[in-house]
Amino acid sequence: MKNLIVSIIAVLIFSVPVIARQKTVQLPAEIASAFASKHPESVVENWHLKSGTYIVKFKANKKNHFDYYGTDGKWIKTETMFHFTHYLTPSVKNGWKNSAFKAWYIEEIKEVETSGHHEFVFLVDNGPMLDSDHVYFMEKYKLYFSPAGELVKKEELP
Hints:
By secondary structure, the chain is α+β, with helices and mostly antiparallel strands. It has helices spanning about 1-20, 30-40, 90-95, and strands at about 45-50, 55-60, 65-70, 75-80, 105-115, 120-125, 140-145, 150-155. It has a single domain, classed as Nuclear Transport Factor 2, Chain: A, CATH 3.10.450. A hairpin with a 3-residue loop joins strand 5 and strand 6. It is globular and about 50 Å long.
């Protein structure tokens, strides 16, 4: 009896991930159509609705991408996440290396594309440069680089 219970529990534990992977993602028709026309080779991993905007996650070229759509199916923007600077274009990578922030810790890098704008956004802090007695002086910035690698804007964060 004890072996039967252990076997049932084992089957349930190992079958849950399989069941979860078989779940299909159902986007509203307008969003699904817009996504399919913009990214015909990509498959939606998941999506959610936030403040009237549909956010669709998908993978392409081994990177996570997020498309943003209005409720009417109109594309707003695409964000591409980068884990390391070596995946960036040479011009953006050089812009980062030549900036005053090159020794700072990179928390996040994303490429943001809209219909009329294209930029790379770095979220950085100087925490690793401080010892434990000076952690209260930590600074955090959002840095905006053009595709040419030019630092066009820096925004201090609280």
